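Putative deoxyribose-specific ABC transporter, permease protein: structure tokens wanted.
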Amino acid sequence: MWAEAIILTVITAATPLALAALGELVTERSGVLNLGVEGMMAVGAVTAFAVAVTTGSGAAGILAGAMAGAALSLIFAFLTITLATNQVATGLALTLFGLGISGVIGDGFVGISRPPLPQLEIPGLSDLPLVGRILFRQDAMVYLSIALTAGVWWFLSRSRQGLKLRAVGDSHASAHALGLNVMLTRYLAVMFGGACAGLGGAYLSLAYTPMWIDDMTAGRGWIALALVVFATWMPWRLLAGAYLFGAITILQFHAQGAGIGLPSQLMSSLPYLATIVALVLISGRGRLALRHTPLSLGKSFVPER
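Answer:
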């Protein structure tokens, strides 16, 4: 059925956005703005693919992608948290570095393909009409993105450690005065964000397009950054936004296939135009934009000696 096929492709397009954006959401709730998501996704994608091809294990590739993203985020954390460099400039440099190093690492893997991640089937439920394939026959990373959303929501809104992280993001000076370890909290948050970006990249090279090509992230890291603002730093809104942007991405492919008389370049830009429109709408509603914005976002913390 065509409707089922479209929904399945929307889920596939939305999953890497959700994974990367969830990590950035946690990073930003700690008060750190990491614009290097695109670079971390690229490094995660090439590392995951290289390890999966070399070992023959998709699970090993996924783990390697997460570790590569976390490792790259450590560079950003050291520069911005320990050395207190400008977070915006450092994040942009991280993106350029990640895109460049991923091209070097992936040079020997261009043109190689491998089977996509296997789909998990639930006996009795996977064969249900329409909803069977959509809900009960997806690969593990689709379910991971949903579970991760629930976990991040619980962590931020229900756990003691999540409350501490939010306190650091809202006022690092006050959190430090209360005895909270601001720098450790931010290091862990940045590493979590890097691991999630690496997972998003791994999904691209192991499931969405099971091969490696240069610039395969194609701006998804920037969309993930916009999703965090679009969702006003709320996990469930972020997941819904990821599926919305995934639908727009798939829409432009189907529109081109249907022969709509618009330039292909314009159709390809739809996801990015939608991102701009969404940010404009959010910025026009000041209270909504500021309600959950971490007050210390993008501000360096230098503890008093």
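The chain has a mean pLDDT of 88. The two ends are 66 Å apart (CA to CA).

Cheers.
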